[in-house]
Amino acid sequence: VGRNSATGANVVWLMNGTSFVSTVALPSVTNLAWRIGSIGNADFNGDGKVDILWRNESTGANVVWLMNGTSFVSTVTLPTVTNLDWQIRATGDLSSDGRPDILWRNESTGANVAWLMNGTSFVSTVTLPTVTNLDWQMHGPR
Question: Tens of pLDDT along 13-26?
Answer without folding.
Answer: 999 999 999 999 99
